Amino acid sequence: HLDVERKCLVAADGHRLVRVPVELSEGDTTGPVPLAAILEARKQKTESAEIVCNSTAKVIGGAEYPRPDVGEYPDYPKVLPDESAEPTYTLAFNAKYLWELAQALQQTTGAGNYPNVVVEVRSHKTKKGTVPALSVRAAKGEASAVIPAHIGPLPKADPTAPSAVLMPVRQ
Question: Which residues pair with 17 in a beta bridge?
Fold first, then answer.
């Protein structure tokens, strides 16, 4: 979904929400952006791709896709944390490592069955002393892993940077 007022693309499925800032093209209008247009734009061998979104979604240098009328998009800002408030905790870790761990944990639950993943902040002893680490495990089962993490103050977040929200899961 292109949100012209907030200059971002938003995607949500009820479990997660991703917001990515975009540069608007002249004439862009708020509304759905077909996945096929986004996938085509990502395949272009350029530093940045452009999709003009008005009555259609036109990939510059590519195809044009209809923009379906799907009604009003949910009021997604209501589920975003208050960016002006100081964070309670700040966690920073390598997202690729977390993805790889989720893939490995999937092997313990069977192909196609992605487990709920529990992430815990723990102390990890190293040669240099005790450091914070994230303990990652499947919600049910014995498999687990540990990845290094930074826990504490980080530079102030850029409110225009890409962001995501993971919704809580029921155990």
Answer: 12, 165
pLDDT of residue 62: 92
What is the phi-psi region of residue 159: left when phi exceeds 0, alpha when psi lies from -120 to 50, beta otherwise?
A: alpha
CA distances from 108 to 114, 143, 156 (A): 9, 7, 38
Look at residue 9 in the predicted model and tell me its pLDDT: 92
d(CA 20, CA 161): 7
User: CB burial class (10 A; 0-12, 13-18, 19+) of residue 49?
Assistant: middle
Q: What is the DSSP letter of 96?
A: H
Decide: residue 62, CB within 10 A, 0-12 exposed, 13-18 middle, 19+ buried. Answer: middle
Q: What is the pLDDT of residues 125-147, one digit of tens each?
A: 777 777 666 666 666 655 555 55
CA distance 24 to 6: 10
- With beta carbons less than 8 A apart as the criterion, state whether 138 and 115 touch: yes
Helix (H) or strand (E) holding 81: none
